[in-house]
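Lecture notes, part 5. Sequence design as translation. It can be helpful to think of inverse folding as translation between two languages: the language of shapes and the language of residues. The source text, in structure tokens, appears below.
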């Protein structure tokens, strides 16, 4: 059986990080705490530092509740154009979600960066049921197109 993943180059790293940084949203998969079934939802996405994914979520959502019970999740980013969606570049990140608490020293900076990247969230960011989560990447797979798969170092996606 041939090797699934190709050699990672600086260009591949730049492409993958760029896809994440330019994605304003992504598909987040979590595990439903009541049934254990996977569930997927679209989220608004931001990045800290070079490429640390972060999200803002309401406690009223199913994915917020799921992440509190089990922080394991997966994030898929990448735009789809006309034609075969499988030829489009995409990045899948296995993550552990870490809720950012009120006492976290980085919260004010995170809020400012978030609003720069997602200005429309100004209307709800300060509601009491909303909280930030850092998505700490444990595994990263970048598909650049058909037959172009890369396993990336998780460290690329830290702040």
């Amino acid at each position: 059986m041939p090797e699934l993943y190709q050699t990672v180059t600086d260009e591949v790293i730049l492409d993958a990080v760029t896809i994440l940084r330019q994605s304003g949203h992504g598909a987040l998969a979590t595990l439903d705490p009541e049934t254990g079934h996977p569930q997927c939802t679209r989220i608004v996405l931001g990045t800290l530092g070079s490429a640390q994914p972060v999200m803002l979520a309401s406690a009223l959502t199913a994915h917020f509740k799921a992440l509190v019970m089990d922080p394991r999740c997966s994030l898929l980013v990448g735009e789809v154009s006309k034609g075969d969606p499988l030829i489009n570049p995409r990045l899948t990140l296995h993550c552990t979600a870490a809720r950012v608490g009120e006492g976290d020293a980085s919260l004010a900076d995170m809020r400012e960066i978030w609003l720069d990247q997602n200005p429309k969230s100004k209307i709800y960011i300060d509601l009491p049921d909303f909280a930030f989560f850092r998505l700490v990447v444990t595994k990263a797979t970048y598909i650049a197109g058909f037959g172009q798969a890369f396993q990336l170092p998780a460290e690329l996606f830290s702040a």
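The translated text above is only one of many valid answers, since several sequences can fold into similar shapes. The chain is about 20% helix and 40% strand.
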